[in-house]
Known about the structure:
Layout: H1 2-19, E1 23-24, H2 26-32, E2 37-40, H3 44-49, E3 51-52, E4 56-57, H4 76-85, E5 93-97, H5 103-114, E6 119-123, H6 127-132, E7 137-138, E8 158-159, H7 161-167, E9 173-177, H8 181-185, E10 201-202, E11 209-212, E12 215-218, H9 221-227, E13 236-240, H10 247-256, E14 261-264, H11 267-271
Parallel strand pairs: 1-6, 2-4, 2-5, 5-6, 8-14, 9-10, 9-13, 13-14
Antiparallel strand pairs: 3-7, 11-12
Amino acid sequence: MKTLFLIFVLLFTSLSLQASSLRIEASSFNQERTNYKLIDTRAADVYSKGHIIGALNFPIGLTYANMQVNGKLTDPFTMQKVVQNLGLNANDKLVIYDDGSFFDAARLFWALEVYGFKDVKLLNAGYKQWSDKKFETSTQTPTVSKSDYITIIDNNRLATKFATQIATRNPNQIIIDARPDKAYEGEVSSAKRYGHIPKAINIPASHNIDTNNKGAVLKDLTDLKDLYKGLDKNKKIIIYCAIGKISATNYFALRELGYNVSNYDASWREWGNDFKLPVINLQNAK
Length: 286
């Protein structure tokens, strides 16, 4: 009996460590930073005024093919060039942070997973929180050597319009709309049409974050498990928002929880502007 109990404890501990391995606390990173390469997703002019010491700058705008149109992911050639110039390779251990919203950090986390990176984490703090803790910052840009990174695309992490169309009719797939409820219900829209993709359920991206007077942090795993407890882990999940940005926080949370998930990059800006595709508008039903 004692042996079985010990096995259970070890298994539970192992699963817990595995589940929490995609984030790192600021205090832990401050002690373990030599094991990782650090990425700052803020705009270049903001980064230059101060960043976590040693951080490389990967402005989140570089993950978009054309942010004004939709959230479509930047093309492989462009991504390869950006990654090479930062001296990164797909086997590097990376930690990503942003201004504390987690939306940009999560978007880059997802984009790098799409492009073959296997060991990426989010810093569970924004730059201001790091600075407030009096941890070391700098205005100096690290010197790096260009890498020989070649783009590798993990199509299981990237959902397209066609894949999402299939998901609307496939009972073994789930669609999650990460936009605020007013957008989901059809009261507001970033596209010409209002509503949501058929079959989509609404889990707003903000539900993945805890906010207090000290700033925002990712919700702990217990809260995330409760948030997503109704989802079948045997089913593939596709997530979208307006431009594949805030939905990346849902993507990150579900990755931590062990779900098979992809992010629809072009998202509602593409779907909602394509009049050939169906939408559900709950405002019309009132």
